[in-house]
Here is the input.
Amino acid sequence: MNNKMLRLLALSLLLSLLLSAMAGCAKKPEKLSFSIATGGTGGVWYPLGGAIGGLITKNVPNTEATAESTTAAIDNLLLLTTGKAGMAFCYDYHVVWANEGKIQALGAKKPVRLVMGFYEQPLHIVTKEGTGIKTIYDLKGKRVSTGAPNSGTEEQAGYVLKALGIDWDKDFTREKLGATESVAALKDGKIDAFFWSGAVPTSSIIDLASTPGLKMVLVPIAGEDADKIMAANPGVFHKTKFAAGSYPGIDKDVETIGITAVLVTMDTFPADRLYQILNVIFGNLNELAAVWKGAAKLTPEKSIGQVTPDALKYLHPGAEKFFKEKGALK
Here is the structure.
């Protein structure tokens, strides 16, 4: 073997060793573990967050997500913006307000980013026959739960009551209970009515409506009252209704107001990982439908289409890539 061949063999061996070393040094994607701040166990967000976390852990490499039970929206945003959660459920207007510094509990402006929209969330004012409550003004002098502390329900109840000149500290006896606790208290006669902002149907309210010997009543928010509330809280509510059959015993439409439930994260969440997560979520909607029936009809177009334009301005880059690829965004 001549010198030229020896040099070529040595160079080939050196190159092979170099490539092997480089391959050994290549880093795997860093493992990402985070919690999803959801809501109370009697609502929709907790089981939905758990299902999403399971899909992520099973299908997104080096990524693990778990659902965390909370008192919902504002609590979720506090956990998210302080780094104690990686994703959170809230409402579309919260995305805008967080970035504009308008959420008092958060203090300064926070770079919250939209991941996706889920569903319209009507505001329930729930009572039962025999309480004498037929309108929102009939809450005066009664025992009323305005939602768990720092929840979206409590926040929205405050907006509604203030707009109509009702003082929750003076005009009725106020309780601060989540959906499950409110249902139990109403059944036991410990309260006369409660507010709840949640998807239709909500499991705990199905339970209430199905209770033998009890006739559940949904108090309407309509007409001039709805207009007044929306004028006092621009960009928050839109008009909607509980369709007949939404819950057992609801045999005709009931007008109300609502908002849109969304999933959010911070601007620092890795864009490539978020893109993968959205592909997994929309590729496995049949599994989510086991805990939230609306998942069966969710599409990328519907997800984004029900979010306010102002909130879409804060769409996370990883989400923007996904929705553009699916044709839901231009």
Notes: The domain at 121-259 is CATH 3.40.190.10 (D-Maltodextrin-Binding Protein; domain 2). The chain is about 40% helix and 20% strand. The mean pLDDT is 92. The beta strands are 32-37, 63-68, 87-91, 112-128, 143-145, 173-175, 193-197, 216-218, 238-242, 254-266.
